[in-house]
Amino acid sequence: MKHKYCVETVERALRDVHNDSRPFGRISVVLGGDYRQILPVAPKGGREQIVSAFLRRSLLWGHVQALTLADKMRLDYATPENKLFAEFLMKAGSNPKQIVQLPLAIQNLETVRDLILLIYPRLNESIKRQDGFLTKRTILSARNDDVSSINDEALHMFPGESITYLAADKIQENEISLTPSTTKMPFQMTQRQFPIRLSYAMIINKSQGQSVKYVRLDLRTLVFSHGQLYVALSRCTSASRISVLPRSSLILFTPKFSYIVSHHTTNIVYPEVLL
What residue stretches are annotated with the DNA helicase Pif1-like DEAD-box helicase domain (predicted)? Predict the structure, then answer.
């Protein structure tokens, strides 16, 4: 979801182009979004800063007419099991309950190797893959370091010896120079990169907006921001095509006692951003 500053910048540009001081230059603008999804990034910010970056905290919100889509299109042709899953997703996106039980149709896994080979079967064998094999599936995790670890392990499963080729060719097109905009250092660092990254696994935030047939979810590191669990589980429309590698133990505390729960995970929802 975009930072409110992006919409405000477009709004100012429209006023300039149309030479009209009224909001958005007096033209109709349609904005779409799901408030259950991940909110704008506020570098080094906490909950207050993240919520403040949301469009509803913009002065423009007073000029917005909010319309809600009421029909659940994904339920029209769904099986009873998937209807329950869709209802679970709606609750996961709006209920601030911090510990949730995952649907029973979602399979629990035990190791990272199981996580990889279940979604990329026979990855460790030299076989010909069908077109679109990789684009129909993905592994999601909350943190970049876990994603890198999973990608490395998947790469090491390939059969044969690894060979390193050294080259001095220069890539002329599609280079990207990255200069961090927020840093406490007294100087600027620029990194030039070619935009390709191994992606057997990706972070949950990166998957927002995508739809895949098969999802494997690494929840060893618990979600830490609004909408992450909702986004991760809603990339796939069927609970039977989702599997989870859970944290080894999740301890639930109550005023009188504590106990270990299975097939549960944490969920974070900021009620103040929901309509």
Answer: 1-79
- 71-159+194-274 homologous superfamily: P-loop containing nucleotide triphosphate hydrolases (3.40.50.300)
Give the model confidence (pLDDT) of 5-39 as tens digits: 999 999 999 999 999 999 999 999 999 889 999 99
Burial class (CB in 10 A: 0-12, 13-18, 19+), 166: exposed
Residue 266 in tokens: 């944490």
Question: Model-level pTM?
Answer: 0.84
State the SS3 of 108-162: ECCCHHHHHHHHCCCCCCCCCCCCCCHHHEEEEECCHHHHHHHHHHHHHCCCCCC
Q: For the chain, what are the domain ranges?
A: 1-70, 71-159+194-274
